[in-house]
Amino acid sequence: MPIITFHKGGQVYRDEVKDNTNLVVRAGIKQFPYPHLRYECGMGKCSKCACRVLAGAQHLPPPNWKEKKQLGERLDAGYRLACQLWVQHDIELAQDETAAA
Fold this sequence. Notes:
Blueprint: E1 3-8, E2 11-16, H1 23-28, E3 50-55, H2 65-71, E4 79-81, E5 91-94
Parallel strand pairs: 1-5
Antiparallel strand pairs: 1-2, 3-4, 3-5
């Protein structure tokens, strides 16, 4: 089962999740990493859940059209939308304290 390492506000949160887990779905049902993950719509329209991938990016699928539209050049800096990712391998993410536009 994948291990999620999540950095936010100088803290590190770590948890094991079931294969093919979406972190925004888990946050919405009050499971890890709730309440630490910032998110809103869960559909790739708002980019509130944008996270920088620190490790494990090689196991993610290429960005979809929603991520390309919302993140633009931030994709090159390693950002992805957590709501669009279904985690199947270990991953390490960081979320800025304030939403990057």
